[in-house]
Amino acid sequence: MKKLLLIFMIGVFGLSYSQEAPAVLKTGFSKEALQQKLEDENGKSVTIQQILDLHKGKVLVIDFWAGWCRDCLKALPKAEELERNNPNIDFVFLSMERSKEGFDKSLVRFNMKEKDNYWFASGWKNDFTNYVDLNWIPRYMVIDQKSSIAKYYAISPEDPEIQQTINRLLK
């Protein structure tokens, strides 16, 4: 009987979770989100605003990921391909690792040391991730040359809207 109930529940509710697109696709950031602190590889504190300022005037792709995330690791080759195919675009990788040690290990293990990496020492739930409705990773955003959000929600580097948005912004 218990097996039948379990099979029924799996059939009705499923075993896997999936990303749910936010109801509102935002085009800008709140003041609180921009002041959210992250840390770079050296442990230096930096805000989202400072990261955006470093890339102002360029199209920027933000990649939320973690080394423990199976979906992120499956997407990594396609994310690297997107980066290779867009050499004039900046890419920033925001890690959702649970510790600085995990962040450092993932950067080495997945050959990310030469990339622009930051991690949320404050954890998954913070002013920035809450504002952008981060409910799963990987997640990708495209930011335009004026630091506005051009593509708010993509769950795969193969989402054709990412490349379409990049192409539109470069015209």
Automatic annotation (TrEMBL):
Q: Which residues form the Thioredoxin domain?
A: 27-171
Q: What Pfam families does this protein's entry cite?
A: Thioredoxin_8 (PF13905)
Superkingdom of this protein's organism: Bacteria
Q: Which InterPro entries match?
A: Thioredoxin-like_fold (IPR012336), Thioredoxin-like_sf (IPR036249), Thioredoxin_domain (IPR013766), Thioredoxin_ResA/DsbE_sf (IPR050553)
Q: Which SUPFAM superfamilies match?
A: Thioredoxin-like
Q: What is the protein name stated in its UniProt record?
A: TlpA family protein disulfide reductase
**Which organism's genome codes for this protein?**
Chryseobacterium pennipullorum
Tell me the classification of the organism that encodes this protein. Answer: Bacteria, Pseudomonadati, Bacteroidota, Flavobacteriia, Flavobacteriales
